[in-house]
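Escalation from tier 1.

The customer reports that the assembly of two entities below gives different structure tokens on two consecutive runs. Tier 1 could not reproduce it. I'm attaching the input and our single run for tier 2 to review.
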Amino acid sequence: MSQQAQQLLDRHRETLDRAVEAISTRGVWSPYPESLKKYPEEAVKGAPQRFEALLKQPFALKVTEVAGQVGAEVSPYGFELGITYAQPEQGALIASMQAAMPAWRDVGAEARVGVCLEILARLNALSPDIAQAVTHTSGQAPMMAFQAGGPHAQDRGLEAVAYAWQAMSRVPATAKWVKPQGKHDPLVLDKRYHIVPRGISLVVACSTFPTWNTYPGLFASLATGNPVILKPHPAAILPVAMTARVAQEVLEEAGFDPCLVSLMPDTAEAPVTKELALDPAVKLIDFTGSNAFGEWLEQNATQAQVFTEKAGINSVIIDSVEQIKPVAQNLAFSLSLYSGQMCTTPQAIYVPREGIKTAEGQLSFDEVADTLAKAVEKFLSDNDRACAVLGAIQSPATEARIDKSRALGEILLDSEPRQHTQFPRARIHTPLLLKVDAGQRDAFSEERFGPISFVIATDSTAHSIQLAREVIGAKGAITLGAYTTDDAVAEQFEQLAMEVAAPLSLNLDGGVFVNQSAAFSDFHATGGNPAANASLCDQAYVARRFVVVQSRRHGQLN
Amino acid sequence: MSQQAQQLLDRHRETLDRAVEAISTRGVWSPYPESLKKYPEEAVKGAPQRFEALLKQPFALKVTEVAGQVGAEVSPYGFELGITYAQPEQGALIASMQAAMPAWRDVGAEARVGVCLEILARLNALSPDIAQAVTHTSGQAPMMAFQAGGPHAQDRGLEAVAYAWQAMSRVPATAKWVKPQGKHDPLVLDKRYHIVPRGISLVVACSTFPTWNTYPGLFASLATGNPVILKPHPAAILPVAMTARVAQEVLEEAGFDPCLVSLMPDTAEAPVTKELALDPAVKLIDFTGSNAFGEWLEQNATQAQVFTEKAGINSVIIDSVEQIKPVAQNLAFSLSLYSGQMCTTPQAIYVPREGIKTAEGQLSFDEVADTLAKAVEKFLSDNDRACAVLGAIQSPATEARIDKSRALGEILLDSEPRQHTQFPRARIHTPLLLKVDAGQRDAFSEERFGPISFVIATDSTAHSIQLAREVIGAKGAITLGAYTTDDAVAEQFEQLAMEVAAPLSLNLDGGVFVNQSAAFSDFHATGGNPAANASLCDQAYVARRFVVVQSRRHGQLN
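Tier 1 run:
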């Protein structure tokens, strides 16, 4: 392998070994600090200025053949970015990637993993800048944009590299096959096993988590030898472009074709994803986005291995609690964070219409619903804190959806616009909380992306479980929360989780939230229900990205 | 877990551990002897009689609800089996399997693997009987039916269990997640991780290798918690039914629903596979058979993970040899074994029209072709040996194809019928070897299933490589053989193998053959070209058969 690449692996070997350990033991671990204080002061303080310097001009990236220049990003905080990006000519891009693939394949797993780890390390150093880009494309508030867009996204990338390394390491490079033949000499074969990438990998990014949802596919594919086309959402190109630039720099320095990671930006008016997805050379597709498009990919891009994360009806079932207040506070945070624009935000909250048991006595349905509404209201009463939690609404469509959803139920807590001190034109809205009956299934069983949730009156906890089973069975879910003080009911929730293949968060009432997912410990989505056909990240997520090609020839006994 | 199942795992623990070791080191290993002498004499001698006793009557299996009785198998050796099998009512079968799944899931990996290993051990003891059933459905000659249908098939099943065990073991049952919070108490979460099966698994068997190609899917799915519907080819039900019976017995003894493994026989006139394959409850499909149906499954059964082994244009490229004779003898065996009805039999043999270099001087194209034809002729000159190698032609369609193929090229060696001493009505034919020019691509680049092969005159070895690249790229291949005395050319073959994702057998001239594939060492097919979208067996083959569902709740520091 290339000497540079070997040095990269040596430099990051401990990180790799610890990551492999972490995915096996699944405790708390990360090499990428989530506190800004751990980053150089200049890197943090200078980030806004460096972001400003990127605006209103072309963004430089390596491109084989330029077909045009695109880019029309608008910050949810209320200004145009004015950055343009070269769009590669598709045929030339595919051809150049296919030409670059054999060298990337033949250099071997160690070199590829070394390069991936160096890319991640440099992305980590760039986290404050990435945070700016994530903020002004996704609308995430700055702290979340930093954590989720920076170290937490890098964690997910590293996790994919660790799984890839583990899977590739399990295939020996060679074997000697010696078969006894009685009195005759044994049959001896020398065998070689090659890790062979499937082909070109297309990673289709989303507008809300342009790095967190992109890094697993990018790094899983790249580590296993596949060139990667990054196709950003037209509204969130910059964080993906910055990522591509870092990858290209590291690849080039290590002696590889930088176009092994290429950006393919497009516009809402002239999308390129369908054509790319059906290109016979594209053998892997990672997609985060709408159910409609994800299902289209699953059904049509049958030449490729397709990994989708779509959306579902994330659900919370409340059976009983010790104290309602900490539960309501916990849920209030989950409903508020990034204005419900996380793929993990609860939408359906099931509560028996007869109310629930608590250590302080029976609480009526309305008391539960009101306590939750008041907890959200109180949590967001300070405008600065509200803005720092809510972030901005990524798209005008989501903003419009809040308005349209008001009629779906009885308003427990109305959504209200907020004014950001620094960015007065920012699109900021508090959560809309509606009360509905279990019979109003059309209201709560369709995904309402954004800060829109339902408290649903059911006949009983058994009924809540049945509804969740049916709704998640049909529509999927990425998260399932549940509350009970009864061990037998807790076991029913555990069974429900397995049945609908949704991860269960039970009785969360402190500083851990149903919509948060920790790399190396939590499997994000399971791949077992309609919300996602893959998990970020498990063995199945990487094992399908390469094949093993062997050769054998007569050999000698040692 | 059930005590019986625990005992089963204890009993077979060493086998399991050694199997896991074997898939990692990939040397020679098997717990199932391939010599008949290692089996009890009575088991071997009594097999034909026990087979006779099965004929002309219903075959007993557990069935939830019987829809009808089917079965019209005809031995390729010339007689009707007259066995009928209960066909389950599809809806009732699916419902009963779904009801049985949670117990099978919840008992855990150890119990499931214990059950699988016991099934395999009993199948091994039954090998002489299975051999009878394989002989009189597939047409394989008795020794091959014993080895390939018995121990070698069991090896492939065990290999799948080993991969499944390894993949499941890598997910911890629990984890404690402890996140420091500065001066505050750490956040502590107790997490559980459940292996959750995808759903009902449909294994569609073929008529030529009813056990060898069926066991990997059966055991990979069953070990990971999925109930399995075995859908045999209508012409080869018995070996699959015998397998199902053993599985049902072991499951029932261990306290599980025997219908977790169920047979769904059908007829050529009223096939059920399409309807079953599109059932929303069917989440896994393993298929061995025609390209047309395999591709239909890949494109239409998008609700399921689909694993296909279809057909391709297995190829041999001859560049140069030390001595032509041992090469010709080696290839003669490969072309003759089971009358070319293996998915690994070479069809296209590329030779430069200028001839090849040997240690004994230049050989013309015609000399190479004639030496090969004569080697086949000589190898099959003894009729008893011929019958013991060729076996019988499984289907009349294959027999007819031999006749139709004569016009495709110049006949180097004509196919001739042979008479079996014990079964005079057996359908036995020697290989047809045709000479064609590289320009006659329509002749050799379509699969001609059966004993039909082409020696193709090319411009040069570079041209041979280019043709193989194009033909395998378009049609796939499960095997690639090559001969050269030049290291540089050997490296080109190695590169070709990686490009077209076909396993390479280089310079085989002794007792190892391009169409043989050893469990635990050889990856059978790669999954990377059109001949198969999966390999038997690798990590990707099992990792997609389950998902991980976790739960988390607040915990205490230990």
